[in-house]
Amino acid sequence: MWTSVVAIPTSFSWLWSQVCWNNLTMLFISVSLLALALLLDSMKRRKRYRRYPPGPTPLPFIGNLLEFERKNPHNSILRMVERYGPILSFQVGWKKFVVLSGFQTIKEALGQKAENFTERSSVPLMGMIGRGKNCEGVLVASCDNGWREQRRFCISNLKSLGMGKKTLEKRVCEEAGYLCAELKAQEGFPFDPHDFIYTAVGNIICILAFGDRFEYHSKNFLNLLHSTEEFLKGATKILPLCLTYISWFSYLPGPQQKMKKDWDDFSTIIKEIVNEHKKTRDSNNPRDLIDAFLDEIEKAEGNMETSFSEQNLIHLLLDIFAAGYETSSATLIWGLLFMVLHPEIQKRVHEEIDTVIGRVKSVTMEDRSSLPYTTAVIHEIQRNADIVPVVFPYVACNDTEVGGFVIPKETVVLNHLSSVLKDETMWEKPHEFYPEHFLDANGQFVKREAFIPFSLGRHACFGEPLAKMELFIFFTSLMQHFTFSIPENAPRPSEERIFGMAVFPSPFQILAFPR
User: Fold this and answer.
1) Which residues are annotated as a binding site for heme?
2) What is the mean pLDDT of residues 250-268?
3) What are the helix (H) ranges across 410-504?
């Protein structure tokens, strides 16, 4: 009896010792693995070149993610530039990034040493929406044969469809008329200009891509614009973009999953439009980019290396909307904001337009040379609005020296355009709205070397001629027909910036009084 009483605690003691031993073993293994991981992480992070750009010390596994503000990561880059200088580095996970700032630095990288920065970074987020070899669109594609094929196609067909020519200019002028009619219909009541500008600029892209414009209140049109805007708003923010370099991030819930849904919505709409084109197109007479692309798909049938496929057509159309409509819309909305914030400048624009072309004649591109002050104001809107503060990432093709620092091969490079457009060594009043930046002593328009809103190098925006046409005709037409002001008793509109594919101002209300 006593034996069994003693045996019970003895067996429990043995069992407890085994549990403790197993737990200690697991703890030892876990600590050892963690120590090994930390050692490998430290070795990987310390593998630096002798003249690698300075930057904050990265933490294990996550790098410098904690350095970034969630809502405004661009402010985080500005702080790092102030602390570390115009060429700095940071990490996301184990992925190395280098930020280039200031006109001289970016000019050296994208001008003198452009051949070393011709590759786009392979962003994991792009894989989430089906981008890959020969299916990368054109805007953020690698500089391979597929990119060259798509870029040639875009430039050639946009020209044949009227980009930079009178045929498209006429359509832009017509759309400016529709826009003015929509604003006049507001009858002096306060309104947010965002949707009106978006639909006007979006229609120009639709004319090129789909062969026709939409009515401003068309449900399909508004759904297309909304899905495009939402996808670009999420996909091009600096922090989510950087986070996607952590491979497992793509599988977690969060903003990247919403981007995937927005992409699916955009794709569904485009597929419907493409299917309609298949039924009605004439291969001998392409009406628009979709027709021309479908012709190329037929020609390339059987070619396994071609970049012409229906999936890539969808990517290409997204790129064209991103480059041609998001940025121009943002610039025009900033333009209206600056005009109500600076009524004395708006008055001078009105006076010049009244003197040169009056209030009846339609605005054309030929008027630009006769409107130096208006042209200077448009350029200052682009400079001050600074709608693309950081260019979509490149990757260094080779070890490259810039500004005395070495940027190792395969490092992701972010060009900080904001630092150029507001470079204190290049502009008299970089942080003010000052159209005189673009005027000489005689009041004539002058170009400035540091004015590079369309970037530099091989990846400079191929839609620049279209953007210039849209900005001049839309802005000048609006100024010709309206006086814009802040509603009575309304607070002064904020210049706070909302980041996405392009930087927009916070929503604001204005009044438009016909002149």
Assistant:
1) 461
2) 75
3) 417-421, 464-481
